[in-house]
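Exam revision sheet. Question 4 asks you to relate a sequence to its structure. Input first:
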Amino acid sequence: MHKVRIANRLVGDGEPCLFIAEIGINHNGDIELAKKLISAANLAGAELVKFQKRTVDVVYTAEELARPRESPFGMTNGDLKRGLEFGLVEYDALDRYCREHGVLWTASCWDEASVDFIARYNPPFYKIASASLTDSSLLKYHCNLNKPIFLSTGMSTIQEIDRAVEILGTDRLVLLHATSTYPSKIEELNLHVIHSLKERYQVPVGYSGHETGLAPTVAAVALGACVVERHITLDRAMWGTDQAASVEPHGFARLIKDCRAIERALGDGRKVVYESEIPVKEKLRRR
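Answer key, structure tokens:
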């Protein structure tokens, strides 16, 4: 199974897990909050942060945008979506802030114009959200960029994933197993799909988790996930649709620490007697 190069390191089996802190829309349209989330992710040990970029009037229908929905930005769904969307000024500031602090960043682009928008920042890879997995035009548009692509597979059938992989190819592809509910039920995480995706597509496979708690994500690493993506928030009680399925900074740091411990504990699979065991062996075995 091949590996995929992201910036100055490889992603795949046998490599340290890549940790992505998904800021997404947890910045609530506030650039200063976004900067705080970048710093928190960096301090916790995440190697990369991720945002979401949409052209609101392209991604959503007029009817959906007009739907009543109360939020700090107004009384319609359109007010909410537009209020959460960063533009050129904000992304220039975020890019500058990330470079000043040595943090890599990328974004999930939900439409072609957003792909072009993010391309100006030369991200190390592009992320395609589960919601976009069946958008063949968008998948093909990403192919023109000659960049690694991370594809989340939540709410998708195997047949839909087959079609997406056929379009994207496997040379620079990383799949992320996911369950697209916020938060996800533990019994619906189905972590063994990580192995199934590896076997079927022969590409690196990671895990994008939306559950509450950390244990399932640690288990995902034990089961072979080479990438972990979790939403980060400063406070799970904050306003916002994704906050409850997110991890606070201290939890994110603990998650990374526990996953690194699992990586060390897994070993190489060869049964050996360690030097530290020899005195115990001589002491306890019946002669």
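Marking note for examiners. The chain has a mean pLDDT of 96.
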